[in-house]
Specification:
With 718 residues, the protein is an alpha/beta fold. It has three domains: 2-185 and 257-350, Alpha-Beta Barrel (TIM Barrel); 376-385 and 402-466; 476-717, P-loop containing nucleotide triphosphate hydrolases (Rossmann fold, 3-Layer(aba) Sandwich). The chain contains 22 helices and 30 strands.
Length: 718
């Protein structure tokens, strides 16, 4: 009797973004080729990025296999050995190879590194499908040479794979069997094709060049996808294979798709499923991985308690449609999820060699040459930075309905001849949803502005709650306040923001004044969004405030400080309520992506300003060195005492006093001025000729009094 076995799902990773997409959308492991010795020579990964990716995946309990399946020549052996040694030090889970010489080199390296503590666990060896392993005895041979997993030749039927696995279990052999379940298929035997080399070599082809493209060296030009005509011996006279004279694609195969028959592969006890496509887009990787993740999990759920006799299983192998008839619940489920296998561009699907070959359907029909491309990508947003301190295991999160992470979504368009008449869809871990009443964003703009526009559209129009709290920073809120105009408060606040950013702190500058001076110091990347967008959004009480902040913020091009451009209408700030101010500051803290938020508020003791002071961890009271300021401070202190008595609001324990524009004016009583029994910790001298035209460079120059004073504030924060 045969019980179902849950396999490992491997997805392709052409670069870090694709690898993270595969993991995010359900892969148990990823496989990838690097910039050398892989059959995908354009793979966009090197050893440095590989190390980060492996560490990240291992923290999530995901596997990383490295593909080094090129066939080596004599002059490459030493270089390959050094390269393999460097890879082993990064602790991958397995090395995928084709050339038998790799086994010898692997054993030599292991012996050399025997006492190296950098290697936590030796990676296993996986034999590539490129080696064309078609029978049990071949697999037995490779297993004797310490190969732990074998990727079966694509020319094998499922019945043959089932028999091989049964023999391996019977003899107690210690190797896993892996098969491809989806993706492009090569016309040649296990991918060993010479067409590309022949057609790009000038010795053989009129269009050949010095730069030959060998498929077995990772440089295939995919000539099997070309359109062909049959030419008679008379030059220039062509005889098409069919009467209407169109091209034919007689060498081009369909794409493999086994989505409907995943349970049969699982009953065959195949250990690992592999999706083809290292050179495909992250859109392809995300959607196809998502489809097979759902299929595998559902198959295990439906068939967990079912046992099938050999004769029943073999009967299904010969006629797989009977399997679908006998298990309609399974078929109905796949009917629902197959849309995910059809989103990315593909050729017509086939089951390849897996089932009855009496009527093979794995070649493209004559004249059926077009890619199936029902959807086009409008935008995809994938977090492509790997930060060891900033990750969260998806396996530990409980997924809620309509809750997605904004760093992993793709927006698609269907029937895109005219965008105005098209239908937009959002693809995420919760499936695919139509976006209605969408806005059109021009692609002819800077990348930062384009992403901001997309995030704003999504945050405004989506009904799905967005989870953005995946940072790990403990945000400190620091407010600069003065009861006096012209105290230099904003200059100090902006200077502190800039110097914080220069010290490596992720910094957000938030100005709540009616007439802010933000635009005089900061220059953004022409973000069309401004603070008015946030103020209106707060009124709507939408769930996606953090995403709106990400889409509306500007980034100063010279300092890296994040901020909101001033409102388009100076009266908009009057509409901000105390609760909305608290919500905005609270969301900046909740996002956990900023080390410090610098608040710059007006001189009024308004309810909004009081709410901001309540939210603050530290408040700098900035006073100019004059009699009027001293008088206003006394009035302010009385106001604070009233707030303390009436509402229990008190600020003294987090207050610091800064005296600015200090001059020898005979105000000796200022030297004894205290706030909450604390004297001013900083006296900034009067600087003649100080003007905003000096820019942020002056605020960061520690050689002048102002830059040095700002640095004292920053060091106090750090």
């Amino acid at each position: 009797m045969n019980k179902i076995v849950k396999p490992t799902l491997y997805s392709p990773a052409g670069d870090i973004s694709k690898g993270l997409s595969a993991i995010f959308f359900g892969a148990d492991g990823i496989y990838l080729g690097l910039d050398k010795f892989s059959l995908r020579k354009t793979a966009n990964l090197n050893l440095l990025s590989l190390e980060k990716l492996i560490k990240h995946c291992h923290k999530l309990n995901k596997k990383v296999d490295i593909t080094l399946n090129a066939y080596l020549k004599n002059y490459e052996i030493n270089d390959f050995k050094d390269y393999l040694k460097n890879i082993l030090l990064l602790n991958p889970d397995s090395i995928i190879f084709s050339d038998p010489s790799v086994i010898i080199l692997y054993e030599q390296i292991i012996e050399e590194l025997f006492n190296n503590k950098t290697i936590k666990k030796l990676p296993s060896l996986t034999l590539s499908t490129q080696s064309n392993t078609t029978n049990y005895y071949s697999m037995k041979f490779w297993n004797r040479h310490n190969v732990k997993r074998i990727v079966a030749a694509r020319e094998l039927s499922l019945e043959e794979i089932f028999q091989i696995k049964r023999e391996a279990i019977k003899e107690g052999l210690n190797f896993e069997l892996e098969t491809f379940i989806h993706g492009a298929m090569c016309i040649s035997l296990s991918g060993r094709c010479l067409l590309s080399l022949y057609m790009t070599n000038k010795k053989f082809s009129k269009k050949g060049t010095e730069n030959t493209r060998d498929a077995n060296r990772g440089e295939c030009v995919h000539p099997c996808r070309f359109a062909y005509l049959v030419e008679q011996s008379r030059e220039g006279e062509y005889f098409p294979i069919e009467e209407d004279g169109r091209y034919t694609y007689i060498l081009s195969s369909k794409d493999l798709c086994l989505l409907y028959y995943i349970p049969l592969l699982m009953f065959s006890k195949i250990d690992a499923f592999k999706i083809e496509g290292r050179m495909k887009s992250s859109f392809y990787t995300s959607t196809i991985t998502f489809a097979y993740r759902k299929a595998i999990d559902k198959a295990y759920e439906i068939f967990f308690d079912i046992e099938l006799e050999d004769k029943i299983l073999l009967h299904y192998f010969k006629n797989p449609l009977l399997f679908l008839e006998d298990f309609p619940d399974w078929k109905n489920f796949v009917d629902q999820i197959k849309i995910f296998s059809e989103l990315a561009s593909h050729r017509p699907y086939t089951t390849g060699f897996y089932f009855n070959q009496e009527f093979p359907d794995y070649m493209m029909p004559l004249y059926d040459s077009k890619l199936i491309q029902p959807y086009l990508i409008v935008a995809e947003h994938i977090k492509n930075e790997i930060d060891e301190k900033n990750f969260k295991s998806e396996s530990l999160e409980k997924e809620k309905d309509f809750k997605i992470k904004p760093d992993q979504f793709i927006i698609l368009v269907k029937n895109s001849i005219k965008l105005e008449n098209s239908r937009l869809f959002l693809f995420s871990k919760n499936g695919i949803f139509e976006i209605k009443n969408y806005k059109i964003v021009s692609k002819y703009q800077t990348g930062d502005k384009l992403v901001s526009s997309i995030l704003n559209i999504f945050s405004e129009m989506s009904n799905y709650e967005v989870c953005t709290g995946d940072g790990d920073k403990r945000t400190k809120v620091v407010t600069f306040y003065s009861p006096c105009g012209g105290a230099g408060k904003s200059t100090l606040a902006i200077g502190t923001s800039v110097q914080c950013a220069q010290n490596g702190l992720s910094t957000f500058y938030l100005n709540l004044e009616k007439f802010p001076s933000t635009g005089l110091y900061f220059e953004s990347f022409n973000n069309s969004q401004n603070f008015s967008n946030i103020l209106y959004y707060l009124k709507e009480n939408n769930k996606n405030l953090s995403l709106k902040i990400e889409g509306s913020r500007s980034i100063d091009r010279s300092t890296g400080v994040h901020y909101f451009s001033p409102p388009e209408n100076v009266f908009d700030i009057d509409e901000l309520s105390p609760d909305e101010a608290k919500k905005l500051v609270g969301q900046l803290i909740k996002m956990a992506c900023y080390d410090v938020v610098i608040m710059d508020i007006s001189s009024e003791l308004s309810n909004v300003n009081v709410s901001v002071l309540e939210c603050s961890d530290l408040v700098y009271f900035v006073l100019p060195y004059d009699t009027v300021s001293k008088h206003k401070l006394e009035i302010l202190i009385k106001g604070f005492e009233i707030l303390d008595k009436r509402k229990g609001i008190h600020f003294w324990e987090k207050a610091e006093l800064i005296l600015n524009k200090c001059a020898n004016s005979g105000l000796s009583d200022f030297d004894n001025l205290v706030l909450n029994d604390k004297p001013a910790f900083l006296h900034i001298p009067y600087i003649k000729g100080l003007d905003v035209s000096l820019g942020t460079e002056y605020l960061t120059d520690l050689g002048n009094p102002l830059g040095n004073s700002v640095n004292q504030v920053v060091q106090r924060l750090i």
